[in-house]
TrEMBL record:
Entry keyword Transmembrane: no
Keyword hit for DNA-binding: yes
Protein name: Helix-turn-helix transcriptional regulator
InterPro entries reported in the protein's UniProt record: HTH_HxlR
Taxon lineage: Bacteria, Bacillati, Actinomycetota, Actinomycetes, Pseudonocardiales
HTH hxlR-type domain segment(s): 11-109
Species of the source: Kibdelosporangium persicum
The entry's keywords: DNA-binding, Transcription, Transcription regulation
PROSITE patterns, per database record: HTH_HXLR (PS51118)
Recorded superkingdom: Bacteria
Family matches, as Pfam families: HxlR
Length: 157
């Protein structure tokens, strides 16, 4: 089914969905917020086909969610994908989806939780905007998710 273009719709929800309504976009964004910057990192973490990932990364760059930044590899220059302020502003949306999923969807039998970490203090927090241990306001730069199912704790770098 072809998707409608909602980019010029008067409703801001429709315009937002035009940019982030594809599930792959939100999953790529999740990994970028966890610190993935390189194509190989996204591909490995998401187990996604190269053509799908290439298309989504390009769309996200065009939409202003990511920007390309060159880096020198062993033999040639490659590009990293760096989150923009627009992508960082979507963090509360991902937080809300995570909370909703915890409350309203069935977890796997061996479920382990995902929680927030106050990075500079090293505290675990149950809230996304204020550290429930020390009361300090949590900014995008000073908080991260910790995903126990991903092996070791991952923090957005």
């Amino acid at each position: 089914m072809l998707r409608q273009d909602w980019s010029k719709h008067p409703c801001p929800i429709a315009r937002s969905l035009d940019v982030v309504g594809d599930p792959w976009v939100l999953l790529v964004l999740r990994e970028a917020l966890f610190g993935a910057t390189r194509f190989e990192q996204f591909r490995e973490r998401l187990q996604v086909a190269d053509n799908v990932l290439t298309r989504r990364l390009g769309q996200m760059v065009d939409a202003g969610l990511l920007r390309r930044s060159p880096y020198r590899g062993k033999q040639r220059t490659h590009e990293e994908y760096v989150i923009t302020d627009a992508a960082a502003d979507l963090l509360p949306v991902l937080d809300a989806l995570a909370r909703w999923g915890e409350q309203h969807t069935q977890a796997p039998e061996r479920h382990v939780e995902m929680f927030f970490v106050h990075r500079s203090a090293g505290h675990r927090s149950t809230e996304m905007t204020v550290c429930t241990t020390c009361g300090e306001r949590l900014t995008f730069e000073d908080r991260a998710y910790q995903r126990q199912w991903a092996g070791t704790a991952e923090r957005r770098s």
